[in-house]
Task: structure prediction
Amino acid sequence: MCPARLIVMAVVSGVAGVPGNARAATDAAALIHPLEWPAAAPAFAPDPATERFVDQLLASMSDEEKVGQLIQADIGSISPQDLRRYKLGSILAGGNAAPGNDVRASAARWLALVDAFYRASVADLSAAHPPIPTLFGIDAVHGHARIRGATVFPHNVGLGAAHDAALIEKIGQATAEEVAVTGIDWTFAPTIAVARDVRWGRSYESYSEDPAVVAAYAGAMVTGLQGAAGSSQFMGPARVLATIKHFLGDGGTTGGRDQFDDRADERTLRAVHGAGYPPGIAAGALIVMASYNSWHGTKMHANHALLTDVLKGRWQFPGFVIGDWNAQEELPGCTRFDCPDMLMAGVDMVMAPDSWRQSYLNLLGQVRSGRIPPARLDDAVRRILRVKAMAGLFGKGAPSERPGAGQFDLLGSPAHRAIARQAVRKSLVLLKNNRQLLPLDAHARILVSGALANDIGAQCGGWSIDWQGDHNTNSDFPGATSIFGGIKAAVEAAGGSAELSPDGSFRQRPAAAIVVYGETPYAEFEGDRETLEFSPEDHSHLQLLRRLHALGIPVVSVFISGRPMWVDRELNASDAFVAAWLPGSEGAGVADLLFRQADGSIREDFTAHLSFSWPATALPVSFSDSGRVSGALFARGFGLSVTQPSQLPRLAEDPRLPPQRLAQHTLFYAGHVTAPWSIYVADPTASVRLTTSAQPTPGGALSVQLDPPLLQATWSGRSQGLFSISGRAADYRALARDGAALRVRYRVSAPPQQPVRVGMMCEAPYGTQPPPADAAVSPDAAVSPDAAAPPRNWALCGTRSGAALDLTARLAAARIGSWHTLSIPLTCLVDQGADLSLVSAPLAITTSGALALSISDVRIVRRAPRTPCH
Result:
C-alpha cells in the first residue's frame, strides 16, 4: 500500500470522475491456464450456519448498504460522523494517517478513534437486519510499528535468514496481541512476494528469493496472527485478520521497479511468485490484497483470469480481495473515483482512501444501471460479510470492550521484546570473520562508530511510525534499544567500556572498533534503486573504515540494509562484516552475537544463512529458467559461524557497471526513468504514476508513452496537464550554489497553443496536510468530469508563485522534428523565489493547450555553463 506523499502542486485530487471503459484483458487471460495451477486446500469448508446468516443478511440489505460494504476509506478523509450515513465496509489508517493527523499519537488515542468508527458503523440501526460492523485495517507489517512504544520486529528480509517458521508464528501472535490492544481488527500482512531483483524498493518486505522459504513462512505468519484455523484460537481474543499480498508477481517486475510489469512466463508466475498463496489459504487466510504490478501488460487489479479463475476458482479462496491504495486509477479507462472493471475482474473491496464518497456514488449508479450485475455485487458483498462473520465481528462488541483492549502495557512488553531480540540474533548473517575476530572480548575498550550506531529509526526502517519511516528519532521508540545501547550494556556489564564516536575519533586507542552504517529508511517505490552499489556518492563511512583499519584497529562492520548490496570496498576495509538487515527496536540482539561471555566462552553464535544471494557486482544476480543463480559473491544459504576458521580474500573494487548506469543525477535516459525517480502525469482530476509503457491522465489532458529510447508526451488541450519526474524530496540548494543546471534534450512534434511553464515542484514540510480530497463534495453531489476543482499553482517551490520559467516562445520557435537542448540554471528558479530545500520533482512541465514533445534525456548537470534565465 502506498499512501501519497504530500506534494505542493497545482494538480490535486479533484472531484471529477470519468466513466470507466477499460476493455477486458483477453490477451492476458489467454496466457493463463488455471487447471495447470496446483490445487489449494482452503482451511474452511462452507459452514452452513455462517452461510445462512450471511444469506439472510444479504437478502435484507439495500443497494446502498451493499455498495457501502465494497468500499474502504482512510481516516484522513472520513470521520465517524460520515460513517453514520455511509455504512462503508472498512476503514484503514494509511501509512501517514493517524488520530488528529499526529503520527505520534498515543495508543489510547488510537483506541478511541477505532472505537468511534466502530460505534458509528453500528449506529442508526436498521429494522431490516442487524448492524454490520466496519473492519479497521492498518499496516502492522513488522510488529505494530505505527504505534509509539510497540515492539518493532526485524523486517522480513532478515527473518528469512533465520529459516525458522516457528519463530515467525510467535512473531505473528505477538504482533496480533499488540494490534488488539488498540482495538484494530486487521493487518495488511504478511507480504509473501518472492523478490528476484532486490533493486525493488519493497525487497525488505520479502522473506526470500527462494519460493520454498516464502511458502513455509506464509502459513506460519497467518497462523500466528489469526490463530490456528479450525481451533478455538482462530480469531479469538488478541487475534487479528491477516492479509496475504500482493497478488500476484510483485517481486518479479522488470528492473526491480515497484508496480511495473512482470514479464515472467506462466510457469514462473505459478511456481515462484504464487508459491506462498496455497499454504497461506490453507492456514486460513481470508483476505488477499491485489498487486499494483501488471503481468504482460495487464494490471493485476484488472486480471480476471488470475483474480477470479485461479484465486477464487482453482484455489477455492472463500474470502475477499481488497484493492491497494487507489490502484484503480492506474487501470486503462479508470479513475480513482470510477472503475467498475476492477470489481468485474474480481476485486471485492475498493481501497478508496481519499475518493470513497465519489466511488460510492459512482458504484451505486453502476449497480442501478446494471453495469455491475446483481450476481457480481452479491458475490462481493457475500465474501466480505462471510469474513466479518468468521472473524466474529458481529459478536465482539466495541473495540474498547474486547479482551486485551486498552492493556497498553502489552505494547513493547518484556515477553514481546524477548521474541524480537531472539529474532535479531537469528537473522544476523556473518559474511566475513577474518582471523576469527568475532566474538570480541567484552572486557576491552570498544569504539562504536558510524552514522547509524545510535539511530533506532534507521534500525527499524520504513513502515515505522509513518510510511517512509524517515522522520523518526530515538524518542519515537520508547523502550527500544539502539545498537550502541545494546553494545554499551553488554560491554559495561563485563567490566569493559564502550565509547560512541560517530566520526571515529578517540582519545584512547580502542581494542576494536564497531562501525554501524547502511541504508536510511524508505518504503515502496521511493526505495527503488538503479544499482546495488551502496552509497556511490557519499564515501564518508568508507573513509572511516579505511582510517581505522590503517591504524591497525580491528574493524567490525555492522551493515544496516533492506537488501543485499554491493559492498566489496567495505568488505575489504573490514576484518569482520555482519549483515544486520533492519533489526527493529531490539538493538541489543546485535550485541548478543558480537561479544564473548565474561569467562571467554561463546555467548551466542551466528546461525543465520542468506535467504537472498549477495551480489558480486552492483547489478543484481540473475536467475535461469531452472532457478540457478549467477552473479553471486555469497550464494543463498551462505553464513559463517564464529567457530569456523575463515579468510575472505581481498575483493576487486570495481562495481562492473555499464556506462549508462554510471551517470550521476540522471533522471531519464534511453527510454528509462532512473530509479528511484518516477514519471507522473496529472490533470485536475488526479495525478497518476507511469508504471506501464503508456499512461493517460484520467481527464484526458495529457498522455505519455515510452518508445525507447524516447518518451512521447502529448497534451490534448482539454484542460491543464502536468508532466513531472518526481521522487523523494532532496535538498538542491548546494547544487544551485555550485552552478548546476537542469538539462533536457527534447524535440517538438506539435507546437504549443497555450503558455507552457517549466520548473520544479517541492514537497510540503513534514507534518503538514492539505485539505481532504473530498472536502468540497456535497454528500448528495453528482459526480461528473465537469466538477473538477481548478488547479492550484503547481510551481510552489517557495513562498510566492511564479517560481517557474515560461517556455512558450522557445518551443514555438523550435524547428519541428529537430532536437534541442534546454538548460535551466537552478539559480534562475532561486531568483524567482524558489526554495529548493525539498525538491520532489526536478522537472515539471505544464500547459492547458495542445502540445507534443519527445524527450530523450533529462539530468542535473553540475557546474554547467551559465545560461541567461530569460
Q: What stands out?
A: Confidence is low (pLDDT under 50) at residues 4-25, 769-795.
